[in-house]
Amino acid sequence: MKKIKIRKTGQEVPALVVGCMRQAGFTDQPFDAQKMNHFIHTAVENGANYFDHADIYGMGRSESVFGEALALSGASLKREDLIIQSKCGIRRGFFDSSRDHILEAVDGILQRLQTEYLDVLLLHRPDALIEPEEVAEAFDKLYHDGKVRHFGVSNYTPGQIALLQKYVEQELVINQMECSIVHAGMITFGIEANMKTPGSVDHDGGILDYCRLHDITLQAWSPFQISLHDGSFIDSPEYPELNAKLAELAEKYDTDKAGISLAWLLRHPAGMQVLAGTSKEERLVRMIKASEIVLSREEWYAIYLAAGNILP
Ligand SMILES: NC(=O)c1ccc[n+]([C@@H]2O[C@H](COP(=O)([O-])OP(=O)(O)OC[C@H]3O[C@@H](n4cnc5c(N)ncnc54)[C@H](OP(=O)(O)O)[C@@H]3O)[C@@H](O)[C@H]2O)c1
Asked: Which end of the chain is more exposed for a tag (fewer CB within 10 A), N or C?
């Protein structure tokens, strides 16, 4: 497994994060704790010990099934061997980054995950009504109570991060953003700077350069999706050229199309972490192996162009 550094803490972590949104969140199917326990062990044994949650996934169900599955391990899997991250701030029909909600949400998260602390807590989405002083109070309390070790945000612009960081004492170490070969706005915007092309539109305030400049680690969510609910671009008839290029390189590097798509994100010098949402052990293990692939500059750009992006 490739490792990256969380830039602000220097902590070495796996480049691939196990995303737990789909583990139980989008389904009412009966939950098999043994099967999920096996999945967690397989991930950890192969070096993927960083897990991403959110209280909104399955309205808490993703966290509670993970907590139940983990509890089956007993002493064979120690809490300190895992890095557990969760998010709060999305409620039914509104966003809420108020002090009281953050504190209440974290207590619920810890209870469902059956753990005493989170390694990382992220605010899930920018809240228009955020009062940064309140967030600062909440983060302070969570940190001093030993409930959260590190803090960050998700889907935040540079201005929103700077505003929050002005008040919050703890460093904001992570920003989680949607990013894939076919959802690469934060990359195309820089490449097509000053053009009149669609890719030149700045959708995020230049978050990629801002995070690199301020040593904030980017985490890429939905790395294999066209967009969150549109299915994967892998094997999609909408992306024939991209799939042909991925297949060609998959053969060269002895991996599959997902492996090359992952390697494409990891080749970016921002040193992103990538969140994989697969529920299949064999897919996860193939991705872990593929995290070691280093694409050439020419290959990186060839994939970029095959996805329909342009060079000015
Ligand atoms: N911060 C945010 O706002 C936000 C939003 C969304 C997600 N997230 C986080 O990001 C994580 C990943 O998101 P995601 O689940 O959308 O990511 P993803 O890894 O791009 O998508 C995973 C889904 O794609 C399917 N898939 C189909 N073909 C695949 C292939 N060839 N290779 C791999 N997967 C394939 C998987 O099915 P199988 O299970 O059958 O493999 C699974 O349903 C989530 O778990 C969550 O932790 C964060």
From this structure: C
